[in-house]
Amino acid sequence: MTIPLDRRFPLLIGIILLLIVLASTLTGETLEGRHGFVDRSKEPKRFWWNVVIYFLGGLFFIGLYIAKISN
Fold this sequence. Notes:
Layout: H1 4-27, E1 29-32, E2 36-39, H2 44-70
Antiparallel strand pairs: 1-2
């Protein structure tokens, strides 16, 4: 017996990552693992790389969910 959340877990992660991208773009700060927050005005290159990585991660997990339910 499987828990229904198991099947939707990649979708949940993908949506959370895309919401982080939206919030980061609107606020101008993004979360980075060891360094805390990265400000868009102080380090624009690192900021946009983090936003792109979060965005691609969100798309990956949503695609994983779609691939899982289509089988």
